Amino acid sequence: MNKKWFRIGMVSVFLLSVALRFWGLERFNTLVFDEVYFAKFGNNYLTHTPFFNAHPPLSQYIIGIGIWIGSHIPFWHDTVNGLTGSMRSPWTYRWLNALTGSFIPLVVAAIAYQLSYRRSFAMLAGLFTACDGIFLVESRYALSNIYIVIFGLLAHWFLLLALDNQNRRRSFWLVFAGITFGASVGTKWNGLWFLSGAYLIWITAWVIHLIHSFPNPKLFFTSPSLQEAGVRRQEAGGRSQEAGVRSQESGVSTYSPSSPTLREAKATSPSSQTPLQNLTQLNIFQMLFYLGIIPASIYSIIWIPHLQLDKTYGFIAVHQQILKFHLHLGGNSPNVHPYCAAWYKWPLMTRPMAYYYQTAERITEPLPVMGPPLPAGAGQVIYDVHAMGNPFLWWFGVAAMLFLIGMLVSQVVIFWVKEKRFSVPATLSVDTWIALYLVINYAANLLPWVEVTRCVFIYHYMCAVVFVFLAIAWFVDQCLRSYYQQLRVVGVTITFIILVAFIFWMPIYLGLPLSPNGYKLRMWFNSWI
Hints:
Blueprint lengths: L2 H20 L12 H13 L10 H14 L23 H22 L2 H12 L2 H7 L5 H19 L3 H19 L6 H22 L12 H25 L11 H7 L15 H19 L1 H6 L5 H13 L25 E8 L20 E7 L3 H29 L10 H17 L15 H19 L4 H26 L2 E2 L1 H7 L7
Antiparallel strand pairs: 1-2, 2-3
C-alpha cells in the first residue's frame, strides 16, 4: 500500500468514526447508564458543587469542559433537560466524548505502524477498531472509559516514538509518554495496567538481552557443543544484516545486534526493523523517571481542582474512601447487578449489557426516554443501546491472540529441541517482537482483574481488547501479504465478516428502532439480553 492510498484510507476511517459517533447524538434526551454520575459530576465542576467521586477526576473535568464549550455554541440545543443539575442539551455533555472516541482508531493505527512500519497492518488495525461496537457506544455518551483507553494508547505510541529516536528527541517523547500514562491512571485506576504493560515488555527485552550476554552460559543447560554453535550463530548474525536488506522485497524479517541504527536501517529495510529492538537502550533510571516519577506527578496534579472543590477529604483520605467504596461494591453476582460479568466472560463476550432499553407502540411516536418499558407484547418498536463489541471481531481477535501465544511458545520449544538448551533465540524477527508486545500488553490489561472481587462489567475489558484488535489486524495482514492464495482468501474473508457483522449489529449500537423479531435476531444468546 503506497502512502497516498494509506492516507486516503485513514482519512476515510476517521470520517466514518466521526459520522457514526455524532449522528443523532442528542436523540435520547436523558441520562444513559453512568451518565447519571459522570455527566452530573462534569456539571458539578461548573456549578462549584462539592461531591464524592469514586474514581480519579480527569474524565469528569473533560466532560465539564465539553459542557462549558457546548453551552456556548449557538446550535444543537433543540432538546434540553435538567438531569445534570442544570438545563443542558444532551449534545453538550456528549460531543467531546464523541470527538475523542473518533481518534482512537487513528491512534491504534499509529501504534501498528510504529511497531512494524507496515501501512497495511496500520490500515487494518484502524479499520477494525472503527468497526467495534462497544467503543462506538462508549464514545456516544458522557462516560469515562474512552479516556482511559486513548491516554493509555497515546502513551504507548509516544513510547514507541521515543524508542525510534535518540538523545533529546527520545527524552521529548518519553516525557509525553509519562504525562499520558499519568492521565490514563488519572481517569481510572485500571489505567495503571497500560503502564505495567510498558514495564513488562521492557523487562522482557532486558531478560532476553541478559540471557545471551550471561558470563556463564552453562547455567542455562547448554550442550557441550554450545561454544561451537555460538561461533556459528555469530557468523550467521554477521550475515543477517545483508540478508535483512535483501528481504525487503520478499517480506522476510531478520534482525542482528550488529545491524545499523534503526533510523538508518528503515531507509533500506523497513520490514526488518521495529522500535521494540531498542528497548534495552532505556536504563532503569530513565524508566523510573520518565515512566515513574512523571506519571505519579501528573496523577497527583490532576487531583488538585477536585480537592479544592471538595475539602471533605485530603489526598490520602480520598484514596482510602475510594478503595473502601470499591471493596464494598459486592461480588460478581447477578444479585449485585444483573450485568455483572467476571473477567473470564469478557473475551468471548458472553455477557454484554444494555445501557438503554425502551419500547414504543409505533415508530412515529416520540422517542421514549423516561419510565419503564411497555409491558411485554405491547411494544412493537424496541430502542436498545447495547454495550457490546463486534462479536466476530472479538472472537477472531481472541483466536489471533492464541495464535500469537502459540507462535511464541513454539519458537522457544523449537530452539530448545534444536540447541539442546532452554533459552530463546538470539535473533528475534519483527513479528516475534510484535507478538511479545501484543501478548504481554493484553495480559497486563486482563489478568489483574483475576484478583478483583467486586462486581465488574464488560466495559472493563476495553483496555485489553484494543490489543486483540491489533492481533487480528496483524494476522489478516500476514494472510493478505502471503504468497499462498488460500491464505489471502482467508484474510479477505475475515475482513468481510467483520465489516458485515458491524453493519448487522449497528442498530443496537446506535439505538435504532427495531421490531421484536429484529431485536431477537441480533440477540444470539440469552445471556446477551
